[in-house]
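Try this one yourself first.
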């Protein structure tokens, strides 16, 4: 895994302007994460490539208009970070082209995380997000920081 970061614009804050983490897994699979506070254009929220096709999650900017007796309506902008992505699935077809599918996102169950946590504590239901997943993420982030501090050195991650 390799991590790099840049600090060229926002010198009055402690975080980097842009960070990139590149991971190569056993078997050759790869993942890349990039966060930028200086990019002029927004990348997809996420972008998955596979041997059979690809899936993208695009940011969605949403404006809600709430009825207001004095103003007729009040405009509320919902941040894209709070909205589910617009999904697009690209699959190769037998003609050598690509089919585009716009799948529906399943409805969210209100407070599902909190309900799962309470059920885990009360009935020992398995956690939907087990602790080992969080430990693995922190391990990767710590290795990325070590790599960034060494100018983009290759760091090995066990786990």
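Now uncover the answer:
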């Amino acid at each position: 895994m390799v991590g790099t970061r840049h600090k060229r614009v926002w010198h009055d804050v402690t975080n980097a302007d842009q960070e990139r983490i590149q991971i190569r897994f056993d078997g050759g699979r790869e993942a890349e994460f990039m966060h930028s506070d200086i990019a002029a254009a927004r990348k997809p929220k996420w972008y998955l490539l596979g041997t059979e096709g690809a899936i993208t999650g695009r940011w969605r900017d949403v404006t809600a208009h709430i009825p207001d007796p004095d103003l007729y309506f009040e405009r509320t902008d919902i941040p894209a970070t709070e909205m589910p992505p617009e999904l697009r699935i690209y699959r190769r077809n037998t003609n050598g082209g690509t089919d585009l599918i716009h799948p529906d996102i399943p409805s969210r169950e209100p407070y599902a995380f909190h309900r799962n946590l309470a059920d885990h504590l009360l009935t020992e239901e398995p956690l939907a997000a087990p602790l080992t997943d969080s430990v693995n993420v922190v391990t990767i982030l710590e290795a990325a920081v070590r790599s960034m501090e060494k100018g983009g050195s290759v760091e090995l991650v066990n786990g």
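Discussion: The chain has a mean pLDDT of 91. The two ends are 13 Å apart (CA to CA).
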